[in-house]
Amino acid sequence: MTGDGTRAVHGPERRAVTQEPLVPPVYRTSTFVLESAQQTADVFAGKESGWTYSRTDNPTSQAFADAVAYLEDPSGIAVGQPFGSGMGAITCTLLALCSNGSHVIAPQEVYGGTWALLTRQLSRFGIETTFVDMTDLEATRAAVRPNTAVLWGEVLANPSMTVADLPGLAAIARDAGIPFVVDATFASPVVCRPLEHGVDLAVHSATKYLGGHSDATGGVVVGPTALMERIRTVRVDTGATLAPDEAALLQRGLATLPLRVARQCTTAAVVAAALSEDPRVVRVDHPSLPSHRDHDLASRLFRGGLYGAVVTVAPEGGREAGMALIDGLQLVKRATSLGGTTSKAVHVPTTTHLAMDEATLAAAGILPGAVRVSIGLEDPEDLLADLLQALGKG
Ligand SMILES: Cc1ncc(COP(=O)(O)O)c(C=O)c1O
User: Fold this and answer.
1) Which stretch of DSSP H or E encloses residue 284?
2) How is residue 341 annotated by DSSP?
3) Ligand 1: which atom is nearest the Cα of residue 89?
4) Does residue 33 sit in helix, strand or coil?
5) Would you say residue 196 has pLDDT above 80?
6) Which of 348, 342, 346 minimizes the C-alpha distance to 377?
């Protein structure tokens, strides 16, 4: 008979589960038991498959990344890697593809976190970035240098909802012999599957549409095995791994992803159309609108007549009017982030684009009153009523 301590730690013999659980189990463990010294050596050496340690690989986290890869590439060729956040995914991807002396081309509208990573961090390690107007394919091609290691794009840019010409940009990367990576967070695989348009790697903040409930943070990269193996190595070395509990929440979100995103996008199109006809509004950015510069491109690249679920609206009256619109909201939450069930809004110049001064904002085409609305799953008429009443308070 063993002592209390030993019995408390080891418990009785575990009951075997021979049936498949309907829902994948959560492997909330940091390490895995192996059978023998030889098997441990073989698994560590990669001669035998097996799980060793959760920073390296965890079945729950990997299952989530596999599920995203299957949505991005139904043929099942592309593989996925899980990360603790979208920025973790972006950091590991860039570190895998760049070395000291590398050059990166990124859109001038790139997500602020990626911009900060490139300019504040990677620049310290000899990685230089040229930010270009990626809607200008010739300017993008002209930015390629002999040491360019990555062409980085975004399927939909924040907050303009500019659409990347994926086939055009892929041709530039192909000619230069470099990988074309896109941040597909704003689109999700429901709206666009970048790998079908010549993109090498699709990166997501799973915190947004993939998880979809604003209760978990994560990231995923999807692409061909050889590139993904390099990215996995950086994930393991930096520890930017996705925890199993977060992975389980994100995985649960995936089951409803097509339903959620389709509903969010159709509501966004309804809201965008109505706001664009309101005389108190200067501009609405949503690619569903024929007035959006990329409406035709989006119609060619995007799936199911969907155009994304972020709508940017600039009221008459500039900065004060934008902030008053935010303050007037009763249903839509004053909160950053996007993609969740709850609609959220931020005044762009004082939040997500705080680092930009008036001139830089103007150059980027962001109006002083711009308000970014992430459309959720509320009824379209309730959302529209809230936005219209809040506009009246400007
Ligand atoms: C387009 C885009 N990419 C990446 C990220 C970073 O994701 P995370 O916050 O999960 O690190 C965000 C976050 O807002 C984003 O909007």
Assistant:
1) strand 281-285
2) S
3) 11
4) coil
5) yes
6) 342
- Class assignment of domain 257-391? alpha beta
* Residue type, position 293, single letter: R
Distance of CA 383 to the CA centre of its chain: 24
Q: Where do you find CATH 3.90.1150.10 in the chain?
A: 257-391
Dist. CA 346–CA 349, nearest whole Å = 9
Q: How far is CA 65 from the centre of its chain?
A: 13
Atom of ligand 1 minimally distant from the CA of 207: 10
Q: What CA dihedral angle connects 335, 336, 338 and 344, to 10 degrees?
A: 30
Pocket test for ligand 1, best of 207, 250, 310 (most atoms within 8 A of CB): 207
Q: Give the distance from CA 333 to its chain's centroid.
A: 21
The alpha carbon of 215 and the centre of ligand 1 are apart by a number of angstroms equal to: 14
Digit-coded pLDDT (tens) for 143-188 = 999 999 999 999 999 999 999 999 999 999 999 999 999 999 999 9
pLDDT above 70 as % of the chain: 100
Ligand 1 centroid to residue 113 C-alpha, Å: 7
Average pLDDT over residues 209-234: 98
Ligand 1 pocket, mutate which of 111, 191, 220 (most atoms under 8 A from CB): 111
Contact in structure between 121 and 174 (CB atoms under 8 Å): no
Q: Which residue matches tokens 């709206």? A: 191
Q: Order of strands, edge to edge, in the sheet holding 201-205?
A: 79-83, 219-223, 201-205, 180-183, 148-154, 103-107, 128-132
Taking CA atoms only, the protein residue closest to ligand 1 atom 8 is 86
How many Å lie between the centroid of ligand 1 and the Cα of residue 205? 5
Question: Best substitution site from 205, 213, 372 to test ligand 1's pocket, by max atoms within 8 Å of Cβ?
Answer: 205
Q: Where in the chain is the domain with CATH 3.40.640.10?
A: 57-255
CATH class of the structural domain 57-255? alpha beta
Surface-to-core class of residue 271, CB atoms within 10 Å of its CB (0-12 exposed, 13-18 middle, 19+ buried): buried
Instruction: Give ligand 1 pocket residues (Cβ under 6 A).
Output: 85-87, 111, 113, 158, 183, 185-186, 205, 207, 217, 219
Residue nearest to atom 7 of ligand 1 (CA): 86
Taking each helix axis from N to C terminus, what angle separates 257-276 and 244-255, rounded to the nearest 10 degrees?
Answer: 70
